[in-house]
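U., I forgot to send this yesterday:
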Amino acid sequence: MNSQKPRLIIHGGASSLDDKGGLSQVRDCLHEIVNQVYTSLLAGLSAKEAVVLGCELLENEPRFNSGTGSVLQSDGQVRMSASLMDGTRGRFSGVINVSWLKNPIYLANALQDSDDRVLSDYGAAHLARELQIPIYDPATDFRIAEWMEERKDNFQSKMARLYADPEARRGTIGVVALDDQGNIAAGTSTGGKGLEKIGRVSDSATPAGNYANRNAGVSCTGVGEDIIEECFAAKVVIRKSDGLSLIEAMQRSMQEALSNNRDLGAIALDNTGTIVWGKTSEILLAAYHNGKEIGDTLEWVGDAQQLSGFCQ
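Result:
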Protein backbone atom coordinates (compact mmCIF):
# COMPACT_ATOMS: atom_id res chain seq x y z
CA MET A 1 0.00 0.00 0.00
CA ASN A 2 1.36 3.41 -0.94
CA SER A 3 2.38 5.72 1.87
CA GLN A 4 0.37 8.93 2.28
CA LYS A 5 0.02 11.81 4.69
CA PRO A 6 -2.17 11.00 7.69
CA ARG A 7 -5.40 12.87 8.36
CA LEU A 8 -7.23 13.41 11.65
CA ILE A 9 -10.47 14.93 12.94
CA ILE A 10 -11.82 14.98 16.51
CA HIS A 11 -14.95 16.33 18.17
CA GLY A 12 -16.05 17.35 21.64
CA GLY A 13 -19.81 17.42 21.08
CA ALA A 14 -22.64 19.20 19.31
CA SER A 15 -25.24 21.39 20.95
CA SER A 16 -27.00 24.72 20.99
CA LEU A 17 -24.79 27.70 21.66
CA ASP A 18 -25.68 29.83 24.69
CA ASP A 19 -22.62 32.04 24.43
CA LYS A 20 -19.17 32.06 22.87
CA GLY A 21 -17.31 32.94 26.03
CA GLY A 22 -15.60 29.58 26.30
CA LEU A 23 -14.79 28.93 22.67
CA SER A 24 -11.20 30.15 22.86
CA GLN A 25 -10.44 27.77 25.75
CA VAL A 26 -12.09 24.86 23.97
CA ARG A 27 -10.26 25.70 20.75
CA ASP A 28 -6.92 25.62 22.57
CA CYS A 29 -7.80 22.28 24.13
CA LEU A 30 -8.94 20.65 20.88
CA HIS A 31 -5.97 22.01 18.91
CA GLU A 32 -3.52 20.72 21.53
CA ILE A 33 -5.04 17.23 21.36
CA VAL A 34 -5.08 17.24 17.54
CA ASN A 35 -1.43 18.26 17.51
CA GLN A 36 -0.42 15.53 19.94
CA VAL A 37 -2.31 12.76 18.13
CA TYR A 38 -1.24 13.89 14.66
CA THR A 39 2.39 14.00 15.74
CA SER A 40 2.00 10.38 16.87
CA LEU A 41 0.50 9.46 13.50
CA LEU A 42 3.52 10.97 11.75
CA ALA A 43 5.74 8.91 14.03
CA GLY A 44 4.09 5.70 12.81
CA LEU A 45 1.08 5.19 15.07
CA SER A 46 -1.67 3.21 13.32
CA ALA A 47 -5.12 4.72 12.76
CA LYS A 48 -6.62 2.50 15.47
CA GLU A 49 -3.90 3.39 17.96
CA ALA A 50 -4.32 7.09 17.16
CA VAL A 51 -8.07 6.88 17.76
CA VAL A 52 -7.52 5.23 21.14
CA LEU A 53 -4.97 7.89 22.09
CA GLY A 54 -7.25 10.72 20.95
CA CYS A 55 -10.24 9.33 22.84
CA GLU A 56 -8.09 8.86 25.96
CA LEU A 57 -6.96 12.49 25.88
CA LEU A 58 -10.51 13.74 25.34
CA GLU A 59 -11.89 11.45 28.08
CA ASN A 60 -9.29 12.91 30.47
CA GLU A 61 -10.40 16.50 29.72
CA PRO A 62 -13.20 17.57 32.14
CA ARG A 63 -14.58 20.04 29.58
CA PHE A 64 -16.17 17.16 27.67
CA ASN A 65 -18.91 14.70 28.56
CA SER A 66 -16.88 11.49 28.52
CA GLY A 67 -14.62 9.86 31.06
CA THR A 68 -13.80 12.43 33.74
CA GLY A 69 -16.64 14.96 33.89
CA SER A 70 -19.33 12.64 32.51
CA VAL A 71 -22.92 13.52 33.32
CA LEU A 72 -24.91 11.64 35.98
CA GLN A 73 -27.96 9.49 35.29
CA SER A 74 -31.19 9.97 37.25
CA ASP A 75 -29.98 7.82 40.15
CA GLY A 76 -26.82 9.90 40.57
CA GLN A 77 -24.45 7.39 38.97
CA VAL A 78 -22.07 7.88 36.04
CA ARG A 79 -22.51 5.28 33.31
CA MET A 80 -20.35 5.62 30.23
CA SER A 81 -20.29 4.02 26.80
CA ALA A 82 -17.58 3.85 24.14
CA SER A 83 -16.78 2.05 20.92
CA LEU A 84 -13.91 1.55 18.51
CA MET A 85 -14.03 0.42 14.87
CA ASP A 86 -11.03 -0.66 12.84
CA GLY A 87 -12.12 0.03 9.28
CA THR A 88 -9.43 -2.13 7.70
CA ARG A 89 -10.62 -5.25 9.49
CA GLY A 90 -14.27 -4.18 9.71
CA ARG A 91 -13.98 -4.82 13.44
CA PHE A 92 -16.37 -3.12 15.89
CA SER A 93 -16.06 -3.34 19.68
CA GLY A 94 -17.55 -1.42 22.58
CA VAL A 95 -18.84 -1.15 26.12
CA ILE A 96 -22.21 0.11 27.32
CA ASN A 97 -23.03 1.77 30.67
CA VAL A 98 -19.74 1.03 32.41
CA SER A 99 -18.96 2.71 35.76
CA TRP A 100 -15.99 3.43 38.02
CA LEU A 101 -13.54 3.67 35.15
CA LYS A 102 -11.33 6.47 33.85
CA ASN A 103 -11.11 5.51 30.16
CA PRO A 104 -13.92 3.44 28.63
CA ILE A 105 -12.06 3.46 25.31
CA TYR A 106 -9.48 1.11 26.88
CA LEU A 107 -12.13 -1.57 27.30
CA ALA A 108 -13.40 -1.07 23.75
CA ASN A 109 -9.84 -1.51 22.51
CA ALA A 110 -9.27 -4.61 24.65
CA LEU A 111 -12.34 -6.22 23.05
CA GLN A 112 -11.05 -5.79 19.48
CA ASP A 113 -9.66 -9.34 19.43
CA SER A 114 -12.36 -10.94 21.56
CA ASP A 115 -15.06 -13.30 20.30
CA ASP A 116 -17.58 -11.20 22.30
CA ARG A 117 -16.93 -7.64 21.24
CA VAL A 118 -19.71 -5.53 22.83
CA LEU A 119 -20.26 -5.82 26.59
CA SER A 120 -22.78 -4.12 28.85
CA ASP A 121 -22.30 -2.96 32.42
CA TYR A 122 -21.61 -6.21 34.33
CA GLY A 123 -19.55 -7.78 31.59
CA ALA A 124 -17.53 -4.61 31.11
CA ALA A 125 -16.91 -4.35 34.85
CA HIS A 126 -15.68 -7.95 34.91
CA LEU A 127 -13.37 -7.21 31.97
CA ALA A 128 -11.95 -4.19 33.80
CA ARG A 129 -11.15 -6.43 36.77
CA GLU A 130 -9.52 -9.00 34.48
CA LEU A 131 -7.34 -6.26 33.00
CA GLN A 132 -6.57 -4.96 36.51
CA ILE A 133 -7.70 -1.47 35.60
CA PRO A 134 -7.83 0.69 38.76
CA ILE A 135 -11.18 1.84 40.11
CA TYR A 136 -11.78 5.51 39.31
CA ASP A 137 -14.64 7.92 40.02
CA PRO A 138 -15.18 10.15 36.93
CA ALA A 139 -17.82 12.38 38.59
CA THR A 140 -16.81 16.00 39.06
CA ASP A 141 -18.09 18.42 41.71
CA PHE A 142 -19.95 20.36 39.03
CA ARG A 143 -21.83 17.30 37.79
CA ILE A 144 -22.74 16.24 41.33
CA ALA A 145 -24.02 19.75 42.11
CA GLU A 146 -25.95 19.76 38.83
CA TRP A 147 -27.62 16.46 39.75
CA MET A 148 -28.50 17.74 43.24
CA GLU A 149 -30.13 20.82 41.73
CA GLU A 150 -32.18 18.77 39.26
CA ARG A 151 -33.24 16.40 42.06
CA LYS A 152 -35.12 19.27 43.68
CA ASP A 153 -37.34 19.48 40.58
CA ASN A 154 -37.73 15.70 40.29
CA PHE A 155 -35.57 15.64 37.14
CA GLN A 156 -37.84 17.64 34.87
CA SER A 157 -34.97 18.47 32.49
CA LYS A 158 -34.64 16.22 29.45
CA MET A 159 -30.85 16.19 29.75
CA ALA A 160 -28.00 17.71 31.71
CA ARG A 161 -26.30 20.91 30.65
CA LEU A 162 -23.67 20.45 27.98
CA TYR A 163 -21.26 22.82 29.66
CA ALA A 164 -19.64 22.85 33.07
CA ASP A 165 -19.17 26.61 33.35
CA PRO A 166 -19.07 29.65 31.05
CA GLU A 167 -15.50 28.77 30.08
CA ALA A 168 -16.06 25.15 29.04
CA ARG A 169 -18.33 23.65 26.42
CA ARG A 170 -19.11 19.97 26.84
CA GLY A 171 -20.32 16.95 24.88
CA THR A 172 -19.71 13.43 23.61
CA ILE A 173 -16.23 12.96 22.12
CA GLY A 174 -15.03 11.21 18.99
CA VAL A 175 -11.97 10.66 16.80
CA VAL A 176 -11.54 9.54 13.18
CA ALA A 177 -8.05 8.88 11.84
CA LEU A 178 -6.35 7.93 8.56
CA ASP A 179 -2.79 6.65 8.93
CA ASP A 180 0.14 6.67 6.49
CA GLN A 181 -0.78 3.20 5.22
CA GLY A 182 -4.32 4.22 4.30
CA ASN A 183 -6.01 2.55 7.26
CA ILE A 184 -9.10 4.23 8.79
CA ALA A 185 -10.46 3.90 12.33
CA ALA A 186 -13.14 5.66 14.35
CA GLY A 187 -13.89 5.90 18.06
CA THR A 188 -16.62 7.53 20.14
CA SER A 189 -17.08 7.89 23.91
CA THR A 190 -19.82 9.46 26.05
CA GLY A 191 -21.25 9.88 29.50
CA GLY A 192 -24.77 9.94 28.02
CA LYS A 193 -27.26 12.79 27.96
CA GLY A 194 -27.54 13.08 31.73
CA LEU A 195 -30.51 12.62 34.10
CA GLU A 196 -31.75 9.76 31.91
CA LYS A 197 -33.52 6.63 33.11
CA ILE A 198 -31.22 4.00 34.59
CA GLY A 199 -29.80 1.79 31.87
CA ARG A 200 -30.59 4.04 28.92
CA VAL A 201 -28.33 3.15 25.99
CA SER A 202 -26.79 5.86 23.81
CA ASP A 203 -25.69 5.64 20.18
CA SER A 204 -21.98 5.80 20.99
CA ALA A 205 -21.45 2.04 21.29
CA THR A 206 -23.49 1.23 18.18
CA PRO A 207 -22.72 1.45 14.42
CA ALA A 208 -25.29 4.26 14.26
CA GLY A 209 -22.93 6.50 16.22
CA ASN A 210 -19.54 5.13 15.25
CA TYR A 211 -18.63 3.30 12.04
CA ALA A 212 -15.72 2.77 9.66
CA ASN A 213 -14.60 0.61 6.77
CA ARG A 214 -11.77 0.81 4.21
CA ASN A 215 -13.49 3.72 2.47
CA ALA A 216 -14.47 6.08 5.28
CA GLY A 217 -15.03 6.56 9.01
CA VAL A 218 -17.64 8.56 10.95
CA SER A 219 -18.15 9.53 14.61
CA CYS A 220 -21.41 11.15 15.72
CA THR A 221 -22.53 13.40 18.56
CA GLY A 222 -25.83 14.91 19.63
CA VAL A 223 -29.06 13.29 20.81
CA GLY A 224 -28.42 9.55 20.83
CA GLU A 225 -31.97 8.55 20.02
CA ASP A 226 -31.92 10.79 16.93
CA ILE A 227 -28.60 9.31 15.77
CA ILE A 228 -29.85 5.75 16.25
CA GLU A 229 -33.08 6.40 14.37
CA GLU A 230 -31.10 7.81 11.44
CA CYS A 231 -28.45 5.04 11.73
CA PHE A 232 -26.30 8.00 10.84
CA ALA A 233 -22.65 6.92 10.92
CA ALA A 234 -23.23 3.65 9.04
CA LYS A 235 -25.47 5.44 6.52
CA VAL A 236 -22.77 7.96 5.59
CA VAL A 237 -20.05 5.30 5.28
CA ILE A 238 -22.25 3.00 3.18
CA ARG A 239 -23.21 5.83 0.85
CA LYS A 240 -19.53 6.62 0.36
CA SER A 241 -18.84 2.93 -0.32
CA ASP A 242 -21.69 2.85 -2.84
CA GLY A 243 -20.13 5.58 -4.95
CA LEU A 244 -21.06 8.98 -3.54
CA SER A 245 -18.28 11.31 -2.52
CA LEU A 246 -17.92 11.69 1.24
CA ILE A 247 -19.15 15.27 0.92
CA GLU A 248 -22.27 14.15 -0.96
CA ALA A 249 -22.87 11.31 1.50
CA MET A 250 -22.70 13.65 4.48
CA GLN A 251 -24.83 16.36 2.87
CA ARG A 252 -27.58 13.94 1.82
CA SER A 253 -27.64 12.28 5.23
CA MET A 254 -27.77 15.64 7.02
CA GLN A 255 -30.63 16.82 4.80
CA GLU A 256 -32.59 13.72 5.77
CA ALA A 257 -31.79 14.26 9.45
CA LEU A 258 -32.92 17.89 9.22
CA SER A 259 -36.21 16.91 7.56
CA ASN A 260 -36.77 14.44 10.40
CA ASN A 261 -36.08 17.13 13.04
CA ARG A 262 -32.97 15.40 14.36
CA ASP A 263 -30.41 17.08 16.62
CA LEU A 264 -26.94 15.77 15.80
CA GLY A 265 -23.48 16.37 14.40
CA ALA A 266 -20.84 14.18 12.78
CA ILE A 267 -17.20 14.13 11.72
CA ALA A 268 -15.78 11.98 8.93
CA LEU A 269 -12.82 11.31 6.66
CA ASP A 270 -12.21 8.97 3.74
CA ASN A 271 -9.36 7.05 2.14
CA THR A 272 -8.52 9.96 -0.18
CA GLY A 273 -7.79 12.19 2.82
CA THR A 274 -10.94 14.30 2.49
CA ILE A 275 -12.15 15.57 5.89
CA VAL A 276 -15.88 16.30 6.25
CA TRP A 277 -18.16 17.45 9.04
CA GLY A 278 -21.87 18.24 9.37
CA LYS A 279 -24.54 19.22 11.86
CA THR A 280 -28.19 20.01 12.34
CA SER A 281 -27.40 21.41 15.80
CA GLU A 282 -26.23 24.97 16.30
CA ILE A 283 -22.59 24.22 17.04
CA LEU A 284 -20.13 21.41 16.40
CA LEU A 285 -16.98 21.36 18.51
CA ALA A 286 -14.52 19.76 16.10
CA ALA A 287 -10.88 20.25 15.11
CA TYR A 288 -8.79 18.58 12.45
CA HIS A 289 -5.36 18.27 10.82
CA ASN A 290 -5.44 18.13 7.01
CA GLY A 291 -1.77 17.22 6.57
CA LYS A 292 -0.71 20.86 6.40
CA GLU A 293 -2.32 22.69 9.27
CA ILE A 294 -4.83 22.53 12.12
CA GLY A 295 -8.33 23.94 11.67
CA ASP A 296 -11.65 23.75 13.50
CA THR A 297 -15.43 24.14 13.14
CA LEU A 298 -16.17 26.03 16.34
CA GLU A 299 -17.57 29.10 14.59
CA TRP A 300 -18.81 27.39 11.43
CA VAL A 301 -22.44 28.29 10.72
CA GLY A 302 -24.39 25.93 8.47
CA ASP A 303 -27.95 26.33 7.16
CA ALA A 304 -30.55 24.21 5.40
CA GLN A 305 -28.63 24.56 2.12
CA GLN A 306 -25.19 23.86 3.63
CA LEU A 307 -25.35 21.33 6.43
CA SER A 308 -21.82 20.05 5.90
CA GLY A 309 -18.33 21.42 5.43
CA PHE A 310 -15.10 19.87 4.20
CA CYS A 311 -11.35 20.21 3.90
CA GLN A 312 -9.05 18.45 1.44
